[in-house]
Amino acid sequence: MTSPWSLLTTRGKVFAVLGVVVVVTGILIGFPDVTRIGLVLVALPVLALLFMPRRAPKIRVLREVDPVRLSPDERGTVEVRFTNVSGRRTAVYLAEEHIDYRLGDRPRFVLPRMSHGEERRLRYAVRSRHRGAYQLGPIVLRQRDPFGLTFLTLHLSSRTEVLVLPRIHALGGSRVRGTSRGSEGELPQMVALHGEDDVSIRSYRDGDELRRVHWPATAHRGELMVRQEDRPARRRALLLLDSRASAHPGSGMRASYEWAVSAIASVARHLVAEGFVVHLLTDASLRDGTADHQIELDSALAALARAQLEEDSRLDRLSAAAAPFTAGGVLVIAAVVAADEDALRTLGAIRQPGSRAMAFVLDPDRFARSRRGAQQPDEPRRPAPTALLADTGWQTVVVGPDTELPSAWAAMTAVTGVGGERR
C-alpha cells in the first residue's frame, strides 16, 4: 500500500516538515500564534491527503485502431473513448497513454471532468518501422490538488494490441513449378466439390445455377440433372522459419532474422495467390500444433508478426517435424542460417527423391560484418557451410543483408534440375 508520505510533492513535504518545526518552536518559546501558524501548515497537506481519491475512477476505456493491422512505416490512427460508468462526477486528470517507444511518442492530454455516462474521445497516430505485436495501455492518470501539495498516480488497466505485419515484397508473376511428387496440384487428380460422389452428373439441388443443367441427361432421366463440377487438388507448401537465437548474429532486433521473417511472409502471400495450401512450421506452431493444419494467409502473417527468436530452438527438431510433409510430396521452402553443418545436413536429408525443396540460406558472416561495419583487410573469413543443402538436392540461394528478396527469389526459382546453389 502506498504510504501517505510518498503521495506528497516536494512542496507538500516542505509544508509538513516546516509546520512541525513551527509548532514545536511555538510551544518552546510560548507563542500560541506561532503554534497556530504551524498547525495550519501541517493541516494543509493532511487535508489534501484526506480528500484525495485513492482508487482509480470507474472509467471504461475502448480503443479502435484504423487500420486493424499495419504494415511497416504505415501510419495508423488510434481512437480512445473514455466513458464514466460510475455514479459520481470524475476529477480532472493529466493522462498519459503507455505505448511502445517504437510506435512513437506517448500521448499526453488532459482528461476533463465527466458526469455519469458522459463520453470523451481522443485520437493519436502510431507508426512503426518494425513488425511486431505492440500493446497500447495502460493509461496513467495523474492528479494534483489545487495547492500542489499532493501527487497521485492511478492506472486504467485497459489494453489493446496493435499488430504490425512483416515487410512483404512482391515476388513477381512467375509461377512455382512443381516436379513429380512435389507437384500434386499439377497431376490429374479430381476432387468433387460436394464430396458425396465422383460422378460428373447429379440431380438438381436448390441453389444450383441453371447454366449447369445438363439437358441430355435431364431428358433421359425425366428430372433436372446438373453437371458435377470438379476441381483439381490444391498443391501444398511447407514454410520453415529458422528461429535459433544462437544462429542469428547480433543481439536485440537482428537483421538476419527480420530478413528471414520477411522472406517467409512474402513467399506465403505469393504461394497463396498461386493456389497453394500453406503450412507454417516455426517453433511456436510446433508447440501449439498448428503446423499440421492449413493456415490462412491472414493467420500466417499474424503469426510471423509475433515470431521471436528462441534460445532453445533447434533446427533438427523442425526438420523432424517437416519430414512427414516431404514424404507426402510437399513443396518445402525454408529460411535458414548457415551456422551449423550438422543441423543443415539434417535439414537436407528430409527432401525425398523427386520432390522439390528450396531454401534462402542466410550467411551469418555477411550479416555480422554488416552489423560491425566495414570489414578489416586482415579479418579472416570463415566459409559458411552453404553447399550442404545444394548437395542433397535443394535449390538454394545465399543471401546477405544487402540481398533484395525479389532477386533472391528469382535466382532460386530459376535453378533447374535437381539441386543448385546461387549466390
From TrEMBL:
The chain crosses the membrane at residues 12-31, 37-53. This is Membrane protein. It comes from Ornithinimicrobium tianjinense. Keywords: Membrane, Transmembrane, Transmembrane helix. Residues 201-275 form the DUF58 domain. InterPro entries: DUF58 (IPR002881). It comes from the Bacteria.
